[in-house]
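Project standup — Tuesday

K.O.: blocked on the structure for the chain from last sprint. Re-posting the sequence here as requested.
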Amino acid sequence: MADTNHPIAALHWVAIDVARYWNAVLVETASGQRHRFRMTNSAADMQHLIDFLRGLGGRCRVGLEPTGDYHRPIAHRLLTAGFDVVSISSVAQSRFREAMFNSWDKNDPKDAAVILEMLKQGRVQRYVDPLLAGHHDIQELSKTYYQISRARTKVQHAIINHHVPLYFPEMHKYWCSTRNEWWVKFMIEFPTPAHVRQHTCEEFIERASALVGRRVHRVAKLTEIWETAADSGALPHDLQSVAVQTFRFTLRHYQQLNDLRNQLEQQAQDLLANDADYNNLMSLPGVGPITALTILAEAGNLRRFGHHRQFLKFCGFDLAKSQSGVHRGREQLSKRGNARLRLAFWLAAVVAIRIRENSFREKYDRYVSTNPTDPDLKRKALTAVAAKMARVAYGMIKKNQPYRRVFLARLVRRPRPLPRGRGAAAG
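H.V.: unblocked you, prediction finished:
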């Protein structure tokens, strides 16, 4: 294993430009000698690199640019082998390369040289391996939920914007929520008005009663659907046509994605039920199970940030301004941090400002008090609330305590008591 603790050990610099198939490696030893070679993302080449670095003796510091997820296997092997691994920002590397070579031209050997120079100057970021840090499972769970939600939204748009106008446009008004499971089941059984009108009203109500749910006036609703189907604007489809079969296939696909999403939600709750950070985040107004899961998956251990400003910068909630000469740019969000974390806190803020009696709602109301109808001011207020929510979430996890709901009673102005002398004289 590499010696990373000896204070007088020679320090070697290792720069790796990561790609899908081939990685460009540039090694500069403590004596100044450089070694260039290419390696694949295979276990054999990774082991050859580790053996080579161990043969140098002394300490090795490895810098690499995160590229998709291709950097994670080699970074994990280097970390487990005892080497110090840091990451290089892609944006910083691009700016540094242009300044270093006075050109926008790039290639793998040049990028490796840029990484080496930034590594030697200390322009690096801390690299956290999710597998070693212990949040790889929840990170994969969160990403899988995100991918399934995206696929589900795509199918949902196809149903609402393409299939429903062609097959049963009058049913669109009953789509009032993305979790309308009864609507999907009903449309699978009765995809067109012809499927409804092939039965009498009593037969239709009897067959469809089990599909529309419990908390609705089933008879009245089904009667309305049966009467509407008599004069529908849908295209005339045969009951057993291929088009109707494809519509049902899309509906079943949407139903399967719904079931998968529900399973992931339940799995996330079971996995994090005893996690203190998860339970603390769940006490935050506007934060639900999936939002809490996303925060923990994307941020990892929030205690690794020394100050809440570091966490805000990691989320992209820090302010930046462009200024040059007489030009004074306005301050705005840098948006250089984790986009999914920013989205999670934004969605939580949208829910929190609709809940009565919490500090986030009060902050939003104070922000828009000057002009409540201004959309730009409302957007800025919501951004400020999202940033505050990120700051509060950091403090809760840092101190390991839930959100404290403090309700302040309205101050009632009371008449000031008169001095004793005046009171006596008045009496």
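K.O.: great, moving the ticket to review. The chain has 18 helices and ten strands. The beta strands are 11-17, 22-28, 34-40, 59-64, 84-87, 125-126, 319-320, 323-324, 327-328, 332-333.
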